[in-house]
Amino acid sequence: MAIMKMKKLRMLAMRSDREQLLRELQRLGCVEIREDAAAEEDLRSLASEREDPARLMEARAEQTRTAAGLKLLDKYAYVKSGLFPALPEVKLSRLFDPALPEEARETLDRLEKGDATLAALLAEQGRLRSAILSLELWRGSGIPLDAGDTEHTRVRLGTIPASKSPEALEAALREVTEAVQLIPAGSDKAQHGLAAVFLRRDEEAVGQVLRSFGFERVSFEGMSGQAEENVAALQKRLEETEREQERETAALKELGAKREQLKLYYDRLTQEIEAEEAKGKLLMSEQVFLLEGWVLAEAEPKLEKLLQSRCCAWETAEPGPEDDVPVKLKNNRLTSPLNMVTEMYSLPQYRNVDPNPLIAFWFCAFFGIMYADTGYGLVLLLLGLILGPKIKKPGMMKHMTGLLVECGIATFIFGWLFGSFFGDALRYIPNFFGATLDLTKLPLWGIKDPSADPMWFMYASLAVGGLHLLAGMLIKAYILIRDGHPFAALFDVGSWLLLFAGIGVGAVTGTWWVALAGALALVLTQGRDRPTIIGKAVGGFKSLYDITSWLGDILSYTRLMALMLAGSVIAQVFNMLANMAGSAFSSKLVGLILFLIIFVVTQLFNMAINIIGTFVHAARLQYLEFFGKFYEDGGKPFKPLQFKTKYSQIIKEEN
Amino acid sequence: MGFFESFGGLALALLGGSLAVGLSCIGSAKGTGIAGEAASGVVSEDPSKFGKAMILQVLPGTQGLYGLVVWFLVASKIGILGGSLASGMGLASGWQIFIACLPMAFGGLLSAIIQGRVAAAGIGILAKKPDDWAKGILFCVMVEFYAILSLLVSFLMINGIVLA
Questions:
Q1: Is A573 in Cβ contact with B148 (below 8 Å)?
Q2: What is the pLDDT of residues B20-31, one digit of tens each?
Q3: Cα A450 to Cα A448: distance, rounded to the nearest angstrom
Q4: What is the pTM of this model?
Q5: Across the A/B interface, how many CB contacts are shorter than 8 Å?
Q6: ipTM for the complex shown
Q7: What domains sit in chain A, N to C, each tagged with a CATH number?
């Protein structure tokens, strides 16, 4: 529940130990290696060599190849996976099995070869089909495809467009010469096929007539004999390729059994890439390497145990004020879902505070106030409870399910207080059973009805906002005192609190002295870091101007009321609609079914459009109003050398 | 005054409700239209983005729905939905309902069109940085807030009017 303490780590170890040591560090997962190693000059001159990135490139290329292989498997041996597939557990010894790369590469080779063969077969089929198509005109014409010229004659095979008639062509040819013959082949929608036989001496004249009719010569290279025979041969080859295609596809489908192996290999490569990247950050000499980085303070004993058995020299130190320390938040199960909210903004600086426990209450409360509905709350809670155990991997999705549970509970509580179950569904549903349901007898059910008294909710929103901002100010005071600036806390926070208390006192009793004292304290203290007297005075008075920003901040909380009311109004109108449809039938059963159909669809719709807005505005009140009071963002996340997996979960066996 | 009296208060109230739903629906149609054009462009390049593009497209559609909500409030107020129709409603009440509908009418019309443009830009995020597409939704929701405020004030006013 805090920002975890870090220590600076510096280590000199034998280069021959490097691979194993990095793997061990990866297993511990508590050391981040710095790239900008800030070693002293003598160390630097000793170890100045950097790792050659060739192996890193190789591993990355291999991983890309594996990913492509997995895609091919999806293409040829598709297996439907659930929305949240369970990740198989894998032992380290299996992940780093020396035989794995060889096996996986063999699978990849087979996959790629099969894919290439299939592509070639498909291309060939395309060629065969178009060849068969082009022969279609000449089938049954009796003209040999390789009909060649003789000593005195020429033979031309070709087509003319369908718009020209072969008879007209023949007539036109006859005008030029008598010694010519047209042999018609076949016709289709676009063209007529024909063969023209004429004497060599007439070539020019005949050619001219042919061109004027749009005659296009076709040639059948590599074919001889009748078109019919050729088509049969092509058909035979086509069938052969189809059989081959089936065989190859079946073989590829069988490779689907190797999917797990490829996934494992992919994860293995991720570890190798991580290790290679880490190597790139090390400084090396011929015999030793230098590692600089950060280690989690609480993990130091574990590191010590590891390093004791190795030939190395190492030391840790507290971070200095000039260090840009990486940040890792330590959270319990209750506050860690709030990471989803924090990470969307920015991590805190190392010396600030962990915001998650601070916003946990407020975020869930604001969400609950705006979404306020027992029905909606139950839906969110169930969703979170069902999805939660299915998502094994820590990360955004896991945080989201936790947040669903917490916000669901808050939504249920406020829904109960404001007496709402899917809007006002309880007014209608019992009617279908000829009953009425009065929940107001239940303790605290519907003690305040938003649409009956919106003004009360407006003031309540402002009051809640005031408390929220006050909490933010107190956190700032805590940080200032913790860091040894008690006076700054008194001046910067105390003066404002005095002013607000004074405004409260003034509003109730009519005495404004306390408020005046607060304002005076602000004027006197807020310019204190300016160098000149005039500067101090100007700074002090200028701080009074901040009252407007406080006003803006507080008014911003009216969105609590606005979103809550809007959501409940829409829900009520939808229920009215569903009831109108449902009560139009004399049969209660038909009416109830119709009511329920419309009710479910419209309420789900209302939930969906409202949940995004509610989330954004609950988060926004933290980011702008709350964080504005104390938060320093821009913390650099702690990225330790560790095992990262996409397709599996690693079980770390102790050795 | 005689001109309005010749129609009566009921007609004015209906005009208000009609404007609330009509203008909001025009805005939503335009907004979802703008976003839909952008979405089609992205989907033509990568059909697998259809679902996400559609989510962004429907966001400017809610204003039409809010307009409908306001219309229903007016309708139930003046009893046009099966209840007893307040045909003898006074001119003053008619004006009140008419005016109460205006925030939704104009807030819905303009916010839907502008939200449509933001949604189209969000679809641009989906095309170029698919991992960050959810941020496009957040930008849209910021605009949505003002449609919600319009709905809210229209509701509060209609709710508070006592027919005479």
A1: no
A2: 999 999 999 999
A3: 6
A4: 0.77
A5: 46
A6: 0.74
A7: 2-79+261-329 (no CATH), 147-219 (3.30.70.2750), 336-484+556-630 (no CATH)
